[in-house]
Records
---
Amino acid sequence: MSDSDFPSSVGTVIIGSGIVGSSLTGELAERGCDDIFLIDKGPLSDPGGSTGHASNFILSVEHSKDMTQITSVSRDIYRDFGAFTNSGGIEVARTEEGMKELKRRVGSAKAFGEEAELLTPDEVEELVTYVNTDSSRAASTARGWHV
């Protein structure tokens, strides 16, 4: 981008087109702000900031309804960008405490309208043959999204 491609003035400048910058830009646009300039050092879907260094995996299983809703909106934004793969996810519990947490997470996900279920170690092995399930108690699967 050359200097001549930049606008001479704008109402709002957002630096960074990762998850936060893109979400903020979309939210402002939905609220009627039409004078926004979003800039980043690289192209979507990997502009090179902290979002690109993350695992780029959005997992919908949260205990907070607000966080679950934010995750759902983020998923929809990435789907609209065309930088989205619906891949799912599996979390394995190897201790009794881990099992209790999985049950809580699955319960929360279902309560907030997300798809999630508890799986037996045998069911995990059918889905992901390379996972060692010898010491597994159970696992949960949730609709997850890879960006």
Note: The mean pLDDT is 77.
---
Amino acid sequence: MEFYQFLNKIYGIVSWESVLSTSGLFNVYRFMRDIKRQRQPEWLTAEIESGNFTQAIINGAREKKDRICTMTIDTFMNFLAREANSLVLKLKATGGLILTGELPTLMEEFLNRDQFYKNFIVSDKMEAVLKDIPIYLVKDKKSILNGAALYAAFSEN
């Protein structure tokens, strides 16, 4: 709720785009820094100023360089798992969950950790269903372009 209120003050309308995107990762980070009062280390300040925020946060969490990096990635991955859970159940996607894009690819090792899966299968009544859902990660950086080309090639219009 605290994070929602934080985003609501910034955007007015809060959507998953303001959470589960590159800018969303930065929003989670700012929340940790500004609301949860986690210290921003000097090395991270320099990385942010040079435009390498996403990679810096991921590397910082990977190397356990600073608590703010770990907390940011853990929180982001929790939100990703919970929204993936919600979408799978809403869409009855029993064939699997497909994650694609830059962030999931960069965060592959965090996706492979038990915590992501544990957060994904949390459900009051549907845990048994969620446990049977395979999770796939598309690593092809051109998958969006290929999908658009395929659609254009076979589109009726």
Note: The CA atoms of residues 70 and 92 lie 32 Å apart.
---
Amino acid sequence: LPRPFPSLAFFCEGGPLHDDCARILEAYTFFRPDIGYVQGMSYLAAVLLLYLPAYQAFVGLCNLINSPSVLGLYRLEPEAVECRARLFNKLCSLEMPQVARRLDIVGLTPEMFLIEWFMTLYSKPLHIDIASVVWDLFLLDGEVVLYCTAIALLRLSEDELLSDRGSELEGVAQILGDDLRARANDSSELLQRIQEVRGRAPRTLLDEIKQIENAEFMSAAMPRSQSFS
């Protein structure tokens, strides 16, 4: 079992939620053998277990992964990855052209960081209390929140990204990796920045994100029932 949230003893070997998390992930591989276990699932299961009993957490995991926002990513579908990378690049170029150019120059593509952010609904890169804010918004408003959160995090990291440290791939990867959790430590500030990004984003781009989300929802197929209730 990959250990989510290393700072929390709940999920370490012998911890009170370790076995439940392992059982949920194992059950999911039987429920969806076409998907199996994919890296990142343990973070979703762990967050749910912090709030729900084991069975309800399993139901929640099934329904989350079956959402059009992440199903294609967990199926490892290239078109789902490429589509989200393209939309992110478009929004980033509009919102933060200097940062977009810096990422392009050093060779950091969205596939190298954004997809993991989406697949874990930000529970891997952020503290659990901060990620919970993103989850709340995502469950209310859908996939557009994931894009706006990405831009908000880049905005928090803008000075570092444009500094000498951000002039090389290794430095940028660290800024958007291990350093991000310490920088994004205020849920109110992050929420405000997410809302600001959404307020500025062109309606046409927001509509495109929604259209893709709807299209993937319509095309999603499960070997059995589509979701639990």
Note: The mean pLDDT is 90.
---
Amino acid sequence: MKTALRCLVVAALVCPSPSMAQVPGETFDALVAKVVDGDTIDVRRAGGHATIRIRLDGIDTPERGEPFSSAATRFTRAESFGRTVRVRGTDVDRYGRLVARVTREGADLSVSLVRAGLACVYRKYSRDPLLLRAEAEARSAARGLWGTTPQPRCVEQAR
């Protein structure tokens, strides 16, 4: 019994979780295995079996049950599920998720969600001019989140 416990402890120390094994700044190609919600996906590196949970960098989509949450999740699924994407890690969040910019065929998923009016720029963590421009376009066109009253939580935070 003690030997088994020692083995488990050693394995936990030697084999970090898939997200923790990722280094911010690293870029890699991966297959999107699952869309958790509008701004969270699970990917699998080529030839790998473990999934890596990714939090899309620089944006915030409505939480489950809020207006446009389902639309944001559907958009992310349509743009990425089952497809190969390029992941560029920027950070690891407090939940152990790799925060990353995700692109497919050159299109940045964070920018696409914001431009469609399905996400806000997460200003606490990002001042990316591409995201800010995409949000300004969505606002002026009253797309998605920006065309509703009352406006969802993330829109209030974006002001």
Note: The first strand starts at residue 27 and ends at 37.
